Every structure is written in C-alpha cells, then in structure tokens.
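FAQ: What does the model actually see?

It sees only this:
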Amino acid sequence: MEGTPAMAANAPLKLSLRTARILSLLVLGGIGIGYLGGAIMAEPDGTAPIAFVFVRLIGLFSAVALFIEGRGQMTQSSDAMLDERERQLRDKAYVATHQIMVLTLFAFFIWSIIAKLIDGRMPGQEQALDLLSGFAITSMALPGIILAWREQPLADDEGEAP
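And it is asked to produce this:
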C-alpha cells in the first residue's frame, strides 16, 4: 500500500503507521491473552481473573481506536467512497481475514473433537462466551490490522525507511 489511503484524510482519528501497528499488536495481544487466557484461567464460578479483564480492556480500547482510524474506516467504506486501488486493498484484507478466521474455527473444531475423545478440558458456558467474544472482536478488527501491516511506510513517516 503506497502511503496512507485517501479515505484516511476524512477519518475522525488520524494515526501514524507506527502507532496503528502498535495498536494492532495491543488488539491482538489484549484480545488473545485477555479472552483466551481468561477462559483458560477462569475461576471455578466461570469468572476471569481481574488481570485478564484489564488486558481485555487494553485490547478493546485499542480496537476502538483502530475502528475509527483511517485504515479501519477504509475497511467499512462503500465501493463508491474508494478508488480502485483502495477497493482492491480492502477486498484483499477481507479475504485474508476470512481465511484466518476459518482456520481458527477449524482448529477449534479439531480441538473440540479431540478433547471429547480423550475427556479433555472443554470450556464452560462463561468461557465459551469469552472465546466467542474474543473471536468476534478480532474478526472485526482484523481487516484494519491487515491494512496497517501491508501499508508501506513513507520515507518521512517517523523516521521509518521504505
């Protein structure tokens, strides 16, 4: 991706490429550790330890920032709002998101089959809701995250070299 998309100029939040990438890592880490870790380390009553709740909040607030940032706005724009290059970038990000999420679901189904066969640990209702929530938030944030990581930095963008 050559620089920042034209759509980003009208975004309510404008972030540098470096900041968008850092936020994307916070989203993936916060959601992954917060929800998956919280489901694994849940208390007997099904609640996640408070540390995992704070990690989730970091991931969620980072996701909100990415949703309203230019790259996130581009993923939600209609075809009429984007030029041909931006449409291609957006569509490729959605294809990659779909592939990642299908592989994740497939891995979960394989795990659940194996866990049933060997009497392994299966999530309870609270943990299943946590896992589903983490999956949903990640799937919504992933197109913008992919765009941020595919974007090529400008030579003058915070000292990053192309």
